[in-house]
Amino acid sequence: MDYFLELLCSGLTRGSIYALIALGYTMVYGIIQLINFAHGEIYMIGAFVALIVSGVLTIYGFSGFSILVLAGLIAMIYAAAYGYTLEKIAYQPLRNAPRLSPLISAIGASLFLQNYVLLAQTPDFLPFPELIPEFAFMEPVAHIMGSSELVILVTSAISMVVLTLLIKYTRIGKAMRATQQDMVMARLVGINVDRVISVTFIIGSVLAAIGGVLVGSYIGQINFYIGFMAGVKAFTAAVLGGIGNIPGAALGGLVLGLAESMAAGYISSAYEDVFAFGVLVLILILRPAGLLGKAVKQKV
Amino acid sequence: MAEAAAKLLEVRELTMDFGGLRAVDSVTLEVCENEIVALIGPNGAGKTTFFNCVTGIYKPTRGEILVHPPNGQSRKINGMKPNRVTEIGMARTFQNIRLFQNMTVLENVMIGRHCRTNTSILGAILRSPKVLGEERETVEKGYSLLEKVGLADVADEFAKNLPYGAQRRLEIARAMATDPFLLLLDEPAAGMNPQETKELDELIVRIGKEEGIAILLIEHDMKLVMNISERIYVMEYGKKIAQGSPQEIRTNPKVIEAYLGEGGDDA
Amino acid sequence: MFNVLKRSVLVALWFVFLTFPLMVVKVNTLKNIVEWRWLNMLWVFIVAFFLHLFWRWALDKRQLRSKKAELEDEGLMAPTLGQRILQDPRLYRPLLGVLAAVAILFPWILDVYQVNIMVLALIFVVLGLGLNITVGLAGLLDLGYVAFFAVGAYSYALIHQHFPVLGFWACLPIGGLIGALFGVVLGFPILRLRGDYLAIVTLGFGSIAKIVIENWEEVTNGAKGIANIPRPGFFGMEMSIGAATTYTYYLMILMVIFTIFVTNRLKDSRIGRAWMALREDEIACVAMGVDMARTKLSAYALGAFWAGAVGVIFAARNTYINPNSFTFMESAIVLSIVVLGGMGSIVGVIIAALILILMPEYLRAFADYRMLVFGAVMVLMMIFRPQGLIANVRKTYAHRRPAAEENNG
Amino acid sequence: ADTFKIGVAGPHTGDLAPYGIPTKEAAMMLAEQVNAAGGLLGKKVEVIPMDDQCKPEIATNAATKLVSEGARIVIGHVCSGATKAALGIYKEAKVIAISPSATNPPLTQSGDYPNFYRTIASDDMQGKLAADFVTGKLGAKRIAIIHDKGDYGKGFADFAKKFIEEGGKAEVVMYEGITPGAMDYSAVIQKVRRVKADAVIFGGYHPEASKLVAQLKKKRVKAAFVGPDGIKGDGFLEIAGKKAEGVYATGPMDVTKYEENKKARAAYVKKYGKEPGTFFDQGYAAMQAALAAIKAAGGTDYAALEKALRNNYVDTAVGRIKFDAKGDAEGVGFSVYQVQNGKFVEL
Amino acid sequence: MLKVNSINTFYGNIQALKGVSLEVHEGEIVTLIGANGAGKTTTLMSLCGIVPPRSGEILFQGKPIHGLPGDKIVELGVIQVPEGRRIFPNMTVLENLEMGAYLRKNKLLIKQDLNMVMDLFPILAQRRNQLGGTLSGGEQQMLAISRALMARPRLLLLDEPSLGLAPIIIQQIFDIIRKINRENNTTIFLVEQNANQALKLAHRGYVMENGRITLADSAANLLTNEEVKTAYLGI
Ligand SMILES: Nc1ncnc2c1ncn2[C@@H]1O[C@H](COP(=O)(O)OP(=O)(O)OP(=O)(O)O)[C@@H](O)[C@H]1O
Ligand SMILES: Nc1ncnc2c1ncn2[C@@H]1O[C@H](COP(=O)(O)OP(=O)(O)OP(=O)(O)O)[C@@H](O)[C@H]1O
Ligand SMILES: CC(C)C[C@H](N)C(=O)O
Ligand SMILES: [Mg+2]
Ligand SMILES: [Mg+2]
C-alpha cells in the first residue's frame, strides 16, 4: 500500500509539472492552432533566470524565502518577455500562412533558444539551489511526500484554479475564449486580437516559468536541454486531455504523470516513455478528441 | 405522383439522437425512379441530419434505410460507410460547400470517378495501357460533366477561385461523376440570387429528366421547390409533419404556420 | 527615417533587457562569484539594432513585392521565377541538362567529403519525397517519420548479420517493404485521428521506436549499435572508401530519380488525387466514394516505403548505426524539408533537403554558432517564404487536359 | 604543410554537448600554449573542431571532412557509436584517433581498429572493480543496479552485474534502466526502497547520478551509492552538493596528484573561470599524447606516430601513460573513491 | 454619416474591390445588392478594418477610419452582423450577447440593452443558457443581430441576414430590421442576395458587380429598373 502511495505521489508531482507546462501549450493551441514547440524552451529559460537571480541574490546576502519569491518573480517576468518576443518574431508574421509553416518556425525557434542558452551560459548541468525549505512537519511522511512535492502540488493547483477563474470571469479571459472560437468575429465585437494572443503567450510563459522554478529546485539541476523533454511530455499531456481545453491539459498532465510513475514502479522504468505514449494512443483510440475534448460528430 | 415507379430509397422510422437531442424522429420517406422530391422545414428541423444518416456520415440511432438500386440488389444501408453508400449509387452535395479547394475544377470531378475506377498503386506507377485508358476516360467523363453544368472553360482553375454559384454547380457535377441513381442536394440555391437560382432550377430539372437521376432536395427557396418537385416532405422538430404535392403543401395550414408564413412563396 | 531609427533603438534596448540575465550575468554558485559580462550588452545592442533595421527593410520589401505582383496581372498570382522555369520546357530542359551534367561530374570535381555529405543530403531528399506523400499530398502530419527510417536501417543491419547471403541489393527492397509494413501497422490504430492528434501520436511512435531499439538489446544490440555493416556492393568488388562513396553517390542519384519518377506518377494518378482530396476535406472525400482507410493506409505505407528503403542505404553508407541517428530531431528536419520546400512540391522538397542538410555542414565555419544560426535560418525562411520555396501551385495539374482530350479522343 | 592539423571531434551541440566541449576546450588550450611557446618542431599546431552530435552519420561527415582537411591525428570521437562510424574512414586514410571517452570495450579489444587509442579505460575493468568493492568491502547482500540505457552506462552496469553474479556473494535484486533527461526518478527510487537494497550501483553520468542521489536522500533511502568514473568529477560534486557525501565512485587512480593535471586544471580555471567539465582530463591527456607523439615521430608519418604512441611514456593529465598493442592506455589504473567533505577521496 | 471614396481591397494578390464609392446618411436603410462574389462581404469587411483597403478612404462621421484597427472602428459604433452569423459556438446565448457589449463599461446600460433585445427576440430569453453552436439557423441569426445591438451601433452593417433561413423566419428578420431602424433610429447598411425584399425595405440601394458599383439609385427606382429586374429579381 505504501508503495502505491509513494508512486501515486511521485506521479502526481510529475504530472502537475507537466500540467503547468501543458496549460501554455493548450492555450496557445486553442487560440492560434499552433503547436508551440518552443514552449519547453521558455520553461528552460525561466529556470535559468531563476538560477541566475538566486545565485546573485545569495552572493549579495539575501536568504531563504525572499530568494524564492524574488527569483520566482523575475523568472516569471523574463519568461513572459521571452514568450511575448517569441510570438512577435516567429509566429505573428505567419498568422495567415499555411498551417504547418508556424510549426516549422517553432522548431527553428526552439533550436535557436537552446543554443542561445548553451552559448550564453554553459553546456554543463548547473546545480540549482534548493529554494524550497524542508518543512519539519513533513518529516514523518517524507518518504512518501516531501516538502518540495507538497509545494509543487499546492502551487500548481493554485495556478490552475487562478487560471480557470481568470479565463471564466475576467474580461481578458472572455476575450481569449472569443478569439479562440472565432478570430474574425472577435475583432468584430471590438477585441484587439493581437493583444489577446500576446497575453495568451505571456500567461502560458509565466506558468511554464513557475514549472521551471519548481522543477529546478525539486531535482536540483538544469541545463539548456531540459526544455525538450518537458515540452514533448507537456504537449502529450495537452493532447491527452483534449488540446485547446484547459481543464483537459491539467487532467492530461496528471494522467500522464501517473501513467509514467505506475509504469516505472510496477513494470520497468526503461519503458516508461513507451507506456506514456502507449496510454496516449490507447486513450486517443477510445476518445479521438482526448479525455475532455468534445468528441463532436462533425456537423456537415 | 410517380405512377407505379420503382422505389429507389425507402427510409422507415429513421431516428437520430445527439446526446439528449432527438434531431430526427421516426421519419419515413421514399423516393422513386425519375422523381424530384423536396424535403423542407424550418431551420434545425433535422433535414441535413436526415441526409447525413442516409449517406452514412452518421449512424442512425434507429430505423431502417433501404436502397433498391435500379439494376442491383436491394439492401439495408444503416451505418454503412459513406464511401460504400456512394458506391451503391447515392451521391450528395453539402449545405456548406465542401469542395477540394486546392484542387482544380476538373480534379474535383475526377475524384467523383474514384469509386468507378480501379487503378492500383502498382498500376499507377507502371501506367499500363489499361490504366492510361481509364485515366483518359475519367478526364473525358469529367469534361462532359463540366460541360453539362457550364464549367468546362474553367476546368483548370482552382476550385477555391470559383464564384459561389459556380462552386455549387461544381458540387453537383462532382456528385454526378459517381454515376448515382439518386442525387441528394442540400440547399443548392442557398446564397444565390434569383437569377442564378433560375439557372439552377433548369439544371436540376435537366439532370432529373435527361439523365434519369432521381433527386432528393433540401431547400428554403420556395419558388424553386414548388417549381421543380413532384412531391414534398415537411419536417419540424425532427418529425415529419406533412407530405404531398406542392399544391397540397402550399395550402397545408400546419406547414404555413410552421414554415411558410403568410405569402410564403414570394420569399 | 528618424522614426525608424528610434524604433530600432527601442527594439535593441528591449533585447538588451531580454538577454541581460543570460548574456551578462554568469554565476558560480559553488564559489559564490558573479561574473558580469557587460561587453555582451553592447554587442546585443549593436546586433539587435542592425538586425531590426534589416528586418524592417526586408519586410517592407516583401510587402512591396506582393504589391507589385498584384499590379502586374490582376487576379492570379504572378508565377515566381521558380515556377516559371518549371512551367516552361524551353527553360527547364536546358537547365535539367546542366543539372544532370553537374550531378554526374560532381564526384570527379569535388573531394570525398563533399560527395559524402551530398550522399547524406540525397538520402534526406528521398526521405523528404517520401514524407511528402504522407504530409504534403495526403495531409497526414507525421512527426515520427524517422521510425520507418530506423526500421529500414536496422532491417539491413540485422538481415546482414543473420542471413549474410542476402546482400545490399536484396535488402534494399526488403527494407522498403518492411518500412511499408510498419506504415500500415502503425497507421491502423490512428486512422480516426485528425490533424494535431495525429501529430502527437506519430511523435510518440517515433520515440517508441527509438526506445525499443535502445532497450531490446538481444535483437538490436541496444545503444551499442551495430557495426561493420557492408557498404553497397558491386559484384563483390573491393572498393576504397573514396570509390565506395562515389559509388553510393551514384546509387543515391538513381534512387532519387527513381523516387521522383514514382512519386510523380502516383501524384498524377487516381491514388494521388484521392490523397489530395483526403487532405482537402476528409468528409467530402469519403462522401464522394473514396475509401478513407485504404487511402490513408496507402499514403502511410508509401511514405514509409521510401524511408525504409533509404534507411538501408543509410546504414550501408555509415557502416555503423545506433539509436542516436533516429531522434525527434531527424523527424523534425524531414518535416521541415517538406514544409520548407512547399507542401506537395517535388522540386521544392529537393531544394529544401539540400539546404537543410548541407547548411549545417557548411555552417561548420561558424563552429559553435552553427546550430544557433541553423535555428534562426529556419525561422527566417518560414517568415519570408511561408508557402515554401517553390509553392506547389498549379504546376502538377497544369498540363492541359483539353489538349489531351483532343489528341486522344 | 606548415601546420600540424589535429581534429577534435565530438558533440559540440545538442544534448550531449557537455561531454564534447570540455575536450575541445582542452585541446584548444594546449594548442594555444604550444603555439605561444613557438610551436612544435617549428610548426604551429592547428586544432580543427568538428561537431558530430554523437550521431553516426554526422560523425562520418566530420571524419571525411577532417581527412580532407589534412588532419593526421584526431582527438575523438567522444561517443563510442560515433567513434565506430568514423574509425573506418580514419583507418583507410591512415589517421590516428585518440578518444578521451569512448569506453566501449570492443573498440580496442576486437582488433578491428588498429588506429584507435584511448586515454580512458574500458567499461569492463570498472565493472569488475565496482562489483568487488560492493560485495567485498561494503559487504552488501542485496544490490540494485540502475543504468542510463546508454552504451557506457549500461555496459558498466552489465559488467558489474555479471561479476556480482559470478562472485555469488550477493544478489542482484533489481536491474533497471532509466531515461536520461526524465523529469525525476522518484518511481525508481521507491522501487529501490521496496526491494530493500543495501547498495545501488549506477551506470551512467553525473547529471542522472546526482538526481538519483538527491532523490534517494529525499526519500530517505539509505542504500550506498556506487557509480563509475562518469560521475567521478567536479560536475557531480557541484550539482549534488551536500547530498554527494558518502557516495562511492570508481575511477582512474587519483589523477589530481599529477603535476600535469594540476597545471591543466589551473590553466583552465584561469581561462574560463569555471571548473572543467566531463572528460576534460582525458581530453587533455589525449591531446598531450598526440603532441608528444608528433614530436617523437618528428612529423605525422603514420607508422612513426604509431610507434611513438605505443612505446613512449608521456606525462599527461591522467598520469604517465603509453598505449598497449590494442590501443588502451597503460598506466591508467583504477581505484575506488568516496566523497568526503565535498571531495573525492581515494580509499 | 458614412462616406466611402474609391477603395481598393485585395486578398493577397486578388483584387476584390475596384474603386468602390458609396454613402450612407444618418437614419437611412441603404442596401447593397449583387451577385455572388461581387464583393459585398468584402466591402463590409473593409469598412470594419478586417480586410483593410489598400487605397482609397473611408470617412465615418467625417473622420477617416481606414487604417484604424478593427477594435477602434467598433468603438466608434460601426457594428457588423457578419455573413454566416459567426456565433461563438461554445458560449451561451447570454455570453454571446455580453460579448457584443465587450467594449462598453456601463453595467447598468448593458443590462438595459439585454432586456431590450430579449424583448425583441423572446426566443433568446428562453434559450439564454444554451450554447450558441447548438441553436438553429434562424435562432442564430437573431442572436447575431442582438449581439450587434448590444454594442449600441450607430451604423449597423448586415450581411445577408436571410441566408439559409426558412421563409417564415426571413419575414420576421426583415420586420425586425425595419423596427430597429424606426424605433432605435439606427442607420442600417444591408447587404442582400434577396434583392426583392431588401429593396422593398430600403430607402436607397447600390448594385455591385465584380467589385465595382454599377448602379446607385433610390430603392423604388431600382425595383423597377429593367436591368435589375432581369439580373437580380429573377423576373
Ligand atoms: N453533430 C451534431 N451534434 C449535435 N447536434 C447536432 C449535430 N448535427 C445537428 N445537430 C442538431 O440537430 C438539429 C437538426 O440539425 P440539422 O442541421 O439537421 O437542421 P436542418 O434542418 O438542416 O436546418 P437548416 O435548414 O438550418 O440547415 C439541430 O438542432 C442541430 O443543432
Ligand atoms: N478570404 C478570401 N481570400 C481570397 N479571395 C476571397 C476571400 N474572400 C472572398 N474572396 C474573393 O473576393 C471576391 C468577392 O467576395 P465577397 O465575399 O466579397 O462577395 P459577396 O458579394 O459577398 O458574395 P456572396 O454573395 O457570395 O457573399 C470573390 O471573388 C471571392 O472569391
Ligand atoms: C559521452 C558518452 C556518451 C561517451 C561514452 N563513454 C561512450 O562510450 O560512448
Ligand atoms: Mg441543413
Ligand atoms: Mg457575401
UniProtKB/TrEMBL annotation, chain A:
GO annotation terms (biological process): D-alanine transmembrane transport; L-alanine transport; L-isoleucine import across plasma membrane
Transmembrane segments annotated in the record for this chain: 15-35, 42-61, 67-85, 97-121, 141-167, 196-219, 274-293
CDD domains, A to Z: TM_PBP1_LivH_like
This protein's record includes keyword Ribonucleoprotein: no
Main location: membrane
Keywords of the record: Amino-acid transport, Cell inner membrane, Cell membrane, Membrane, Transmembrane, Transmembrane helix, Transport
Membrane topology category: Multi-pass membrane protein
InterPro entries tied to this protein: ABC_transp_permease, BCAA_transport_permease
Keyword presence, Cell membrane: yes
GO molecular function, a single term: L-phenylalanine transmembrane transporter activity
Domain of life assignment: Bacteria
One GO CC term, this protein: plasma membrane
Subcellular location: Cell membrane
UniProt record similarity statement: Belongs to the binding-protein-dependent transport system permease family. LivHM subfamily.
PANTHER family per record: BRANCHED-CHAIN AMINO ACID TRANSPORT SYSTEM PERMEASE PROTEIN LIVH (PTHR11795), HIGH-AFFINITY BRANCHED-CHAIN AMINO ACID TRANSPORT SYSTEM PERMEASE PROTEIN LIVH (PTHR11795:SF371)
Protein name: Branched-chain amino acid transport system permease protein
Species of origin: Geothermobacter ehrlichii
UniProtKB/TrEMBL annotation, chain B:
Record CDD domains: ABC_Mj1267_LivG_branched
Entry superkingdom: Bacteria
GO molecular function terms noted in the UniProt entry: ATP binding; ATP hydrolysis activity; L-isoleucine transmembrane transporter activity; L-phenylalanine transmembrane transporter activity; L-valine transmembrane transporter activity
SMART domains, alphabetized: AAA
One Pfam entry name: ABC_tran
Gene Ontology BP annotations: D-alanine transmembrane transport; L-alanine transport; L-isoleucine import across plasma membrane; L-valine import across plasma membrane
Protein name from the UniProt record: Amino acid/amide ABC transporter ATP-binding protein 1 (HAAT family)
Organism annotation: Geothermobacter ehrlichii
TrEMBL record, chain C:
Source taxon at top rank: Bacteria
Protein name: Branched-chain amino acid transport system permease protein
Signal sequence region: none
Naturally occurring in which organism (per UniProt): Geothermobacter ehrlichii
Keywords: Cell membrane, Membrane, Transmembrane, Transmembrane helix
CDD domains reported in the protein's UniProt record: TM_PBP1_LivM_like
Chief site of localization: membrane
One Gene Ontology molecular-function label: branched-chain amino acid transmembrane transporter activity
Membrane topology: Multi-pass membrane protein
GO cellular component terms, A-Z: plasma membrane
TM ranges: 39-59, 91-109, 115-133, 140-159, 165-188, 247-266, 297-320, 332-359, 371-390
TrEMBL record, chain E:
Domain ABC transporter: 2-235
SMART domains in UniProt: AAA (SM00382)
Gene3D superfamilies to which the protein is assigned, alphabetical: P-loop containing nucleotide triphosphate hydrolases (3.40.50.300)
GO biological process: L-amino acid transport
Record-annotated membrane-spanning stretches: none
Keyword annotations of the record: Amino-acid transport, ATP-binding, Nucleotide-binding, Transport
One Gene Ontology term of the molecular function aspect: ATP binding
Top-rank taxon: Bacteria
Keyword Transport applies: yes
UniProt cross-references to PANTHER family, sorted A to Z: HIGH-AFFINITY BRANCHED-CHAIN AMINO ACID TRANSPORT ATP-BINDING PROTEIN LIVF
Family listed: Belongs to the ABC transporter superfamily.
Protein name: Amino acid/amide ABC transporter ATP-binding protein 2 (HAAT family)
Organism from which the protein derives: Geothermobacter ehrlichii
